[in-house]
């Protein structure tokens, strides 16, 4: 049984990797804007605050919630071209799945991870382009890893990485608010489940720091 589980895990990660590697002509239409935006930010050393890419409203105020992702894309494009961006995206997606696997394997078992990964594959195929949201996959995985380690293995030290994750996530993709919402949900566990008060005591301080860092 153990042998089949290991084979299943290996096949899942191979499949994820294959689905994540697109040919160059399948890169989505947003990548040009992200690269140009990253170039502007890198060369001017500041994040622009108006909608530069609008012909009719170029002076419209604009909040670039993924500026750091665009800088990363631009610098990697200079160093390794489009193939480098594809390899980055594939690596981030694989790492995200691996972190989730480490987080849940002791609690739920390997087969549940394999089955849920296969169910998630259609979504992965649809949303696996080179976009800033790939970093949300990674940061969400890190959050769940830290929470599960603290709750089920009493390794509260991982929680204090969350404020630093919040700093990067806030500047790399708009889904950063998910971290605050999920952290709030886990903080409320202590009020709902009497046996979780100890866990709540360790979760609340990082949550407060995260909220301040997102302002």
List the helices and strands and how they pair.
Blueprint: H1 2-20, H2 31-44, H3 67-108, H4 110-126, H5 133-153, H6 162-172, H7 177-187, H8 189-192, H9 197-213
Helix pairs in contact: 1-3, 1-4, 2-3, 3-4, 3-5, 5-6, 6-9, 7-9
Write structural notes for this entry.
The protein is mainly α and about 220 residues long. The protein folds into 2 domains: about 1-130, no CATH class; about 155-215. About 75% of the residues lie in helices and about 0% in strands. The chain starts with a helix and ends with a helix. It comes from Candidatus Jorgensenbacteria bacterium GW2011_GWF2_41_8.
Number of E-state strands? 0
Give the CA-CA distance, first to last residue: 49 Å
- Write down the overall geometry: globular
Overall pLDDT level: 79
Q: Any idea how many domains?
A: 2
H/E element order: HHHHHHHHH
Strand proportion, as a percent range, falls in: under 5%
Low-confidence stretches: 207-215
The number of helical runs is 9
Largest sheet: none
Radius of gyration of CA atoms, rounded to a whole number: 19 Å
Helix % is over 70%
Structural class label: mainly alpha
